[in-house]
Design a protein that fits this description.
Length: 155
């Protein structure tokens, strides 16, 4: 599976075939070929995906259309990355993607809770976060925010 996409859960993207916005809910962590084999539906043969040049190695994301307030999403769709154009909403927020904000926020809360128990728990959490591949800068930022909150400062 390729890992060169910058699409992350939480992003807004456009379905290139319909021009409609979608909310990226999940990275399936599968290629189009893997997803197709597991689900019995060939994403490569889908007309819209074919038009976008989908390849067997495209990452697949679970998305929901979010085109109007009147139409509540009733189902999700598996879409290969070649069919999605990510809307860079983070440009309005110092360049930070929604996914990255969520990671730091969750880690901050976990560090706060771990800090209430003992410093050993904080160190274990930090090591775990690093081991599972969370960006070291995000881990450091979350730990600093948690420490600031612990000492009465809301950074």
């Amino acid at each position: 599976m390729t890992d060169d996409t910058d699409i992350q859960p939480g992003d807004v993207a456009l379905d290139r075939t319909q021009g409609r916005p979608v909310h990226v809910l999940e990275d399936t962590e599968q290629t189009a070929l893997e997803w197709s084999n597991e689900n019995g539906y060939d994403l490569l043969e889908n007309y819209g995906n074919e038009r976008c040049g989908t390849t067997a190695s495209d990452r697949v994301f679970e998305v929901a259309y979010c085109s109007s307030i009147q139409s509540e999403p009733s189902k999700t769709y598996a879409m290969p990355e070649s069919r999605l154009d990510r809307v860079e909403t983070e440009k309005a927020d110092d360049g930070r993607q929604v996914y990255d904000r969520i990671v730091v926020d969750v880690l901050e809360q976990l560090f706060q809770r771990a800090g209430q128990d003992d410093e050993g728990a904080v160190n274990v959490l930090e090591q775990y976060a690093t081991d599972v591949g969370i960006d070291a800068e995000a881990v450091d930022e979350a730990r600093e925010l948690a420490e600031a909150a612990q000492f009465g400062g809301d950074a």
